[in-house]
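Notes to self after the call with IL:
- keep both proteins in one doc
- input above output, always
- annotate only the second one for now

Protein 1:
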Amino acid sequence: MKNLLSHINSPIDLRKLSKEDLPQVAQELRAFIIDIVSTKEGHLGASLGVVELTIALHYVFDTPNDLLVWDVGHQAYGHKILTERREIFHTNRQRNGVSGFPKRDESDYDTFGVGHSSTAISAALGMAIASKLQENFTKQHIAVVGDASIASGMAFEAMNHAGVTDTNILIILNDNAIGIDPSVGALKMYLTNVKKGTQKQDNIFEALNFDYSGPIDGHDIFAVVAELERLKTVKGPKFLHVITTKGKGLQKAEEDQVKYHAPGKFDKHTGELTPKNTAHLPPKFQDVFGHTIVELAKANEKIVGITPAMPTGSSLKFMMEAIPDRAFDVGIAEQHAVTLAAGMATQGLIPFCNVYSTFLQRAYDQVIHDVALQNLPVIFCLDRAGLVGQDGATHHGVFDLAYLRCIPNLIIFAPLHEVALRNMMYTAQLGLEHPIAIRYPRGRGMLQEWKEPFSTIEIGKGRCIKEGTHIAVLSVGHIGFAAIEAVKEFDASKRIALYDMQFVKPLDKELLHEIFNHFNTIVTLENGVINGGFGTAVIEFASEFNYTNNIYVRGIPDTFIEHGTVEELHDECGISKKAIKELLLTLLGTHN
């Protein structure tokens, strides 16, 4: 049988095929995705689930002239392969390679950059309104949204607006009952009832003034093509409900949809994951959080846990299993998660609100108004803080130190290692007078023996971890280990002092006075943006007290950092062990 996919370089080639050829294209596209992701890693299940839908969309619509917007982007691998990137798709998520998400400057077919969820309907509606104002009444505008994403407030805001317009917009609900973890909430129950045919109430989407059709089988490519061709002729806002299976075509991925969202390397024939021997490795920070909150919550009945749709990624799943009535997955709803935590705090509960650093950006107003302004002792645990690697610019958690530092009442703590994370969680639940943000990185820590007895941490106090004579390195967070390892590698290490400052707010001013009076040369180190971050705070301190010491700030520069391994990106930003060693050797040379 002739291979069809190898001859499809763009949707123009796809449209030259007969409809009868499309199932074969689907089979080949699925195999192509599995083949690449099995060795290169990436997001698997979501893209496998929308293979037929992806082919149908590019077959029926005149992309890129018709505008197709993918929500989140986890499911866009098939889209990328069909749109002029098949031959370079093996570089997916690698440095200088194809992005793992739709990206406007990568392709004209990527109409909107997406990494966070629930933005597609707003973006597509904006495009549709623009077409109407430009008197283009033939252009199509399509948003593909998952059932987890459509439950988000922003998606509802956009539908509320779209329903009272006469724009040419089509919303496609890719309903597979799972995002990264299983979907939650009343809307999920409603969609389940629709699929079963037991939903007796008015159709919610028709009530919002959409022309609703479905649900249809998203893996019946002929049915999907036929319905899309019909909808092309329908005016005004339209809504198509498509039922799919995440991981479709790889049995293991269908059976364990959470694990195979982004499974790492696996056998492309059997789906078996490539075994990893992790017994000798330190734990992931997320697991330290997850096990510690269970330990604390068993002793303190006021503790509750909250996560917006990331129970597995945050490891709050451990508490959801052990103490289910006090652990809450609120769905893709960061704003709600924060204000929910605030409400709980007013009633004496101790909420641990676990949000990825990059996702807390979506709830900035709530952090200010609902938590900090009212000085409610919410405990924010910010996972994936700093550079996260192959997910790239949309997911790097590099802004939190800067965007949180300017908020009154808020304590900001960054643990050097796992024990410090545990102890700060312990300290926070004992009772604080202010809210606190505890930020820690993606990946593993450094300590095998991390389950030590709890001890309290004094708020606003840093510590000297190595004395020296000429240069002081001040770090916050786990990135401090890069300096510790760098200093071990040269003979003049006695001339370098190392300080784990721990708190970005409040700064340990007493310790800073000691440092500034003793060292003429000071280096600050952070896994966050330089502008407005920890180093900036140290410079502000120096200005306030008229110090004229030489201060060298190392962190993330004023640009969006693309995807690559964490090691590559740390090197690029000058915060790797190698880069710090080179800086310190240069500075030591000026003292000779």
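Protein 2 (the one to annotate):
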Amino acid sequence: MKKAIAMVAAALVLASGIVGVSTAVPSSPAQALSGADFDPGNIIADSVFYNGGAMSEGQIQSFLDQQIGSCSNGNCLNVVKTTTSTRAADPMCASYQGAAGESVARIISKVSAVCGINPQVILVTLQKEQSLVSGSVAKAPSAARLERAMGYACPDNVGGACDPTYAGVYNQIYRAAWQFKRYGNPPGTSQYFTQYAPGTTKNVLYNPNASCGSKAVAIRNQATAALYYYTPYTPNAAALASLNGTGDSCSAYGNRNFWVYFNNWFGSPTGTTKAVGAVDALSAGVESVSVRGWALDPSSRSSIQVHVYVGSVGTPLAADRDRPDVGRAFPSNGSAHGYDATFRAAPGLQQVCVYAVGLGSASTTELTCRTLDVKPASPFGAVDVARAAPGGVQVSGWAIDLETSAPLDVHVYVDGVGRSLRADRDRPDVGRAWPASGSAHGYAGTVPAAAGPHTVCVYGINVAQGSNSLVGPCRTVDVPSRAPTGSLDVVAGSRDGRITAAGWALDGDTVDPIVTHVYVDGRPTVVTADASRPDIARKYPAYGDRHGWTASIAASPGDHTVCAYGINVGSSDDNALLGCRAVTVPPTNAVPIGSVDVAYGVPGGVRVAGWAIDPDTSAPIQVHAYLAKRGTQLTADRPRPDVGRAYPSAGAAHGFEIDLPYPAGGTQELCVYAIDSSGGENPSLGGCRAISIPSSN
């Protein structure tokens, strides 16, 4: 090689040496690897090739020790040391600080770091070019092999000699890594290397002998292009059919062996290729979702698609915007990988997922999946109160349109007739929920309405996008009459000579209690309807619960008519009839009735049985039995179906039966009395009688 072309010229000259086309085969067979898996357009991914930190110095040293083992002559890569020179930074590599006695592992680690080339790529190249990492040669390499360790500046033409300027392990490793970077035409250099530009299809020779033919290869990435600049041949079918052996006279093995060694030692250089990217911003707007970020396929400079799913609806998006920051991070992929878009979205909680879709065999990568709360374009809010009140229907609530912080108008419709209110009252709860909109979004007012049931609907009036919208569900509100309304719920006569009447009354003109007049046979009694009636408060919440009334009026036994009126509080005389009822006041304190059906002596006492009823109640009453003037109290509550049939209104539970003790025997007086439930007369049941009692001895 001539020194005049040592830097950048003659891409085919700055390639691998004769080993690139030799019959050398990988020293370790590729497990489960097939020539059909070899993709000449994507031999190695950019993300792998340019990963300068893929291995540490210690990992490199351990790998060399494992592959080489014992060294026979001191020249092995795991033991040899050399003095390195300092090199200044340039567009390809950062500065290298030279030192005495550096191991090959340290040199590889430092060169990988400053030049951004994967140390695995350097190790594989050392093997494919001079078999210096694995096999018998690696255990006792000659000085000549070390001089041309990476095949750098060693032309493939027959008889070509390596340029001594670049001889030595350090020079070879540094210059090869430097050259790998130069093939990418980094900023600050010329656009010299374009023959295998990514995205183009080129005819690549099978062998230095042009008569062997060539293959049209679609170059997919910069790393693959760099391998072809370095070793400008692709394996033919014969070479790929025998990955661990030789092919035919037209076979070349450099790039095949690179691919096989890499697979054997470090895994597939392309099989795990996935689209990469990031979501820099993802936000919900007014019926929209905005997303911004970048995505690329590491194996290509071409722009890829991003698929954005809002719920189940997906939208493809080209990630082709200029992103210089991405270009700096992925120099071989360029910068046309940004995306920025806004999509329509239904309001509410929406799951938003963003996927980077790789090219060819590259897999799709999920970049994010988040739940966003999409804001509605139309107004929304709530109807907190919709109820009858003096004057009509009282409504209150809040309404907001997220496109403005200003208060809205709301229209309140009662049976289709609208009235405007301003939603500008302070609602701190709304302000806390939507701080950007502030808290001035409450509304309240009373809309006139006649008596009777009404349908009440509240609409927020739209200000920009969207449309006027219903704020909360419509309500049915029953407005009381402006004349009194109410009910006569209870009328009952009692044996104590009184009539009890009860009900409720209110006047639609006021929330205060009103007066009720209760008439018994035309005689009025005035009561105030101010007792608690929670049921009325539930029906008319604005009026509260103080609208119940109860009247207790003396009345003689017999039939009576009771009528109640609500007294109007307005200017009219439209008092309202609440109801009329007929009622019977029963005779006062009826005397109990009953019978002693059985009374006879038994050893040790007297057995007595019978029944007793108080006409004033259907409940069982007490019976007192006296034997020899000694009293016993019992309840007449035993079943007596015959009594129930005779007195159906009283029921059957009015029988009694008991053994009254008297162990002395002889003839004794028995008296039984029915006890009045109201404290009145306690009649004897059949009078007193003499009972003969057998002695218990």
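Annotation: Residues 555 and 685 are 32 Å apart (CA to CA). The mean pLDDT is 88.
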